[in-house]
Amino acid sequence: MKLNPLLDKDFLVKLDKVPLKEVYAEIIALNSNDEVLETIEGHVTAGTVNVDGASSVRRTCTLTIVADELNIHEYYWGLHTKFKLSLGVKNEIDNRYPDIIWFKQGTFVISNFTTSQALSNYTINIQGKDKMTLLNGEMGGMITGLTHDFGKILVANKNGDTTKEDFLLKDIIIGAVHQFANEPLYNIIINDLDDQGLELLEYRGDTPFYLLIDELTSETFNISFDGNAEYIDVSTNALVTLSTIPIYNPLFELEQSEIVTKY
Question: Are 170 and 193 in contact (CB under 8 A)?
């Protein structure tokens, strides 16, 4: 039976007390499905791995690695590829265990990657931040309500017609984290969140204020201060006025909950 050095507390204490340690790094490039693309292994000459529990981006790393051989496809490392990082410590105190004891550091997204070549080796500089950067806009750009409607989903019926249905807040967050951060659904846990948000509107002006409501969806699609204003019906391209559009006037009909139609 193969012994696991990470379960041997006495060995780990001795390894930690070694005054001069040889540290190695193994970085494994991953695609969007967390499948292995390429691996780089070498001796660490400088660098840090930081963990900040108070920040949304909890883990960051900066490493300089020297490798004797480097045969990689730089296209993978030039993009914002994810990579797994393991740091290893040279073992010279117990021959029951491997020459290098590896400690997993987590999965990061590449924020910077450069290489340089000398006569006998290669130097790699890599910086990474954890996968939160795929959601906060730092790596993947900002996702706003103008570019993506997280609150609606198109549902097609048997006739081929499509309608929009509302998403619950919980489903919106789960879908966004799963799709844009490529996080498995079983890793996403959400507690203490209301199913829907409430948007309030208060008008304190003296001029009549009209909300134009879609009869089919009961959703407000425009506003107006002019009861005689003309509008273009986008479904028919016909010119219509407020007298033919279902409207609700919250200034003078506050007690009425149903849609009001003026003729």
Answer: yes
Model pLDDT for residues 53-104, shown as the tens digit of each residue: 888 888 999 999 998 877 777 666 766 578 999 999 999 999 999 999 999 9
Q: How far apart are CA 237 and CA 223, in angstroms?
A: 18
DSSP annotation of 217 reads: T
Closest CA to 127 of 140, 102, 108, 104: 108
CA proximity to 249, closest of 199, 200, 203, 198: 203
Question: Which residue from 223, 196, 191, 184 is spatially nearest to 207, judged by alpha carbons?
Answer: 223
HSE-CB of 158 using CA atoms within 13 angstroms: 0
Using CA atoms, how far residue 15 sits from 19, 45, 99, 118, 130, in Å, is: 9, 19, 12, 32, 28
Structure confidence by residue, pLDDT tens digits, 197-241:
666 566 677 777 777 777 777 777 677 777 777 777 766 777 777
Q: SS3 for 206? A: coil
pTM above 0.70, yes or no: no
Backbone angles phi, psi at 212, to 5 degrees: -90, 125
The values of phi and psi at residue 178, to 5°, are -70, -45
The answer to whether 110 and 126 are in contact (CB under 8 A) is yes
| Residue for token pair 């967390």 | 34
CB 47 within 8 Å of CB 119: no
Tokens linked to 182: 């490529």
Tell me the HSE value of 46 on the side-chain side, using a 13 A CA sphere.
6
Give the whole-angstrom CA distance, residue 176 versus residue 150. Answer: 8
